């Protein structure tokens, strides 16, 4: 009953315009007082315990990945990636949509932010897709869906947060676990985009000569080195995730300044400030969520949920279906980070009671939450594309429905077919 009241309280405060962090903080404090735990000593220790939640080295990767994304968007990286993808795919049915999605996949391997990927590719691709005869809501939906791969394809801010919530979980193992599902989702997006383009008779561009493709490929190689630096450095053991993010951010800055010459020294204060604001917002949500989790643990709710579920179900299958449905519903109304922080303290102990692989649970949650960037009323990527094009958000949302269904299909596939997530981590010697 207490857990239900806490979740309802969070949703109500969100609906009346309170921020995510503010909602969790208010409900947690109210519950704390109601439980009689709000003693002077506990309240004095509260700020320190919230700070402890965000000072870990794992979370230091977040500002560096955000900084890298800002450098890439300002430095012109997206332009070269799309030009190369367009040259290779543009002459096919759905070629421009496929090029946009492929660019999003590559950008996702550089930045774990769904909105940053969608904005970076959208500003480049949408005009050409419009001029070639593409339906604008579909174009926006395809790019928004491609941006939704950001939290799935490593490096992923969502997976970094998951690792910070579950002690002993390797970020590298989670990154490896997300690789195959992320690529699979992107390929299914491309197949659907090709089908829809052929069915709706969207336009194609003229084939680009092989010589020009090679030239554009060579030009884009500097940008394509970023995921090599990030993922290659992590997986061969050269960097930790945090160190890789810092190196890649620095490389992105040099690339924008000296290769593409679109990033100026005068731009740096604005970029640093934007990164600092985004980091501050994320960290404050994490800190307040830590208090929320503390209250949940005080109530022994996670323990009681595990006991009840284990006594009711002999298999984790119905629980997984329930988890996915709940995450999809919550994603329509709440930001994914907040959902993750609220639900992991309950879902993780539950999965452990059935010996369900931690990496598999993380990727299931990650993909289910990624659907939230495409589902109104919160759908962040829908707002991003609407702001870029002026298209009505609900029109984009309707065109995005097939992409959401694809993501749900992949979520269920990952949930019930373990090798999709655990093969790569186990193959490279990580505990999945």
Low-confidence stretches: none
Number of domains: 1
Which value, in Å, is the CA radius of gyration? Answer: 22 Å
SSE ordering: HHHHHHHHHHHHHHHHHHHHH
| Helical amount | over 70%
The number of distinct β-strands equals 0
Q: Which outline best applies?
A: globular
Q: Helical region count?
A: 21
Instruction: Report how far apart the termini are.
Output: 34 Å
Reported for the largest beta sheet, the result is: none
Which class best fits the helix and strand makeup? mainly alpha
- Give the strand content: under 5%
Mean pLDDT: 83
How would you portray this structure in words?
- The chain has 432 residues and is an all-alpha fold.
- It has helices at 2-15, 20-35, 40-54, 61-75, 77-89, 95-108, 114-131, 136-147, 157-165, 171-200, 210-235, 241-259, 268-298, 301-312, 317-331, 336-353, 358-370, 380-389, 393-399, 401-416, 419-427.
